[in-house]
User: Fold Histidine kinase from Tardiphaga robiniae.
Amino acid sequence: MTNLMIPMWTTWSLRARICVLLGGMFLSALIAGLALLWIFSSDQILEENEPSSRSAITVAAGLNAALAASTRPDAILAAFVDQLGSTPADAIRFRRDGEVHAPEQGKTSGKVPEWFVKALFVPDLAQHIPVLVQGRRVGDLIFEPDLSAQIYEKWIGFLSLLGSLVGMALLAGLLSFVTIGAALQPLRDLAEGLARLRTGDFSKKVDCSGPPEVRESCLSVNELALTLGRLSSENRSLLRRMISIQDEERRDISRELHDELGPLLFAIRANVTAMIDDCGSGTNRSMGEERVLQAVEALQIANRRILERLRPMLIEELGLDASIQKLLRDVHTQVPEMAVTFEIDPRIVTADSVVAQTVYRLLQEGITNVLKHAGASKMSVKTEVTNEAILVEVADNGARAPLEPKFGRGLTGMQERLRALEGKFDYIRADGWTTIRCSLPLAAPD
Ligand SMILES: Nc1ncnc2c1ncn2[C@@H]1O[C@H](COP(=O)(O)OP(=O)(O)OP(=O)(O)O)[C@@H](O)[C@H]1O
Ligand SMILES: [Mg+2]
Assistant:
């Protein structure tokens, strides 16, 4: 419905519009030329034949006077007719009364098409002047000028007008086609530049060529690219800063938990154990203390788990490879029925510490999401080192994953970490599998 309402010409290319405009201009010029030719040609023919027409009248008057004054008018008339010649093509002819009028020959030489002659509206210039002998009409002096040369002249004029306009239209069309193509090239470069900006590529400049108006736009786009590039790099460093502050904070909290809460819990547990030992077993009091002991032990386990999440010690102690193995072993402990396959590239040890930390966090969140949301029976974990980049993939065959997930803290954190390192994040739902695919450089950018 909306498409029907849009005028058709709005879908035409600039080239098509200019060609139609030029075509319209040349067509109007042709029509105007033809109209002028048509309006003035009959007047012109009349004007051109006016002297001959007047001469014919004068000749007829002279003849009639001579015939009236003569005693042998028949002989004079015969001599006059002999002088005129007898072909119907002659402009002045004598026709006796009762003589059958010879069919009029074509006014043109046959080179001009009949439709053109008709279109010209050639005026009828024929004159029939009566010839009198002793007051009696003996015939007519007929004046019928041959217009073929004049009509042919108009026809040549028409052909020249048509030919020159068609030639000019073709030439103008060709020139505008080439010129517009050249003029549009800078606009195409500009559009490509803007498309690059949209994809986040701020490095390549637009080639500033073409007319000044387009050049100005190109310069503005290049400036915009510079600004966006600067903002993007500032944004990345802010993100890196934010993540490192986050990690530092986690480290501080884990240290506090370890140094403050750990000894306290240990002390409570030791004291409760001592109390239980003092009281012996089987009494009501020792049952209560036993429960306190169990609660303290559960608190210690929870504390260790929180510490583990906050600060995976293994990365620093044993390296990324072993930390990932530990993560996978924990999965097996938590969900033994899940079939976990993994492929850890040994070259992953070459990742620098920030990248190693990021890879670990990505896997940790990816795996946690599978356990939390997917309802999967199979999970596959993969890290691969290629051309100074690391590919991290966590896939599962769970059916609960949405096509477009609503990003929570986990996926947002993953994206932020990757953006800070100029990495890429993809969430893919295909063939019954959900895949989180991340790629990041082996070394963190400066
Ligand atoms: N492997 C997966 N299977 C199914 N759904 C998933 C999976 N990974 C992510 N999702 C969907 O994406 C959503 C967002 O995940 P995200 O990790 O950002 O948040 P969350 O896990 O819900 O909470 P948290 O902030 O604690 O991580 C989830 O709520 C879930 O619907
Ligand atoms: Mg999550």
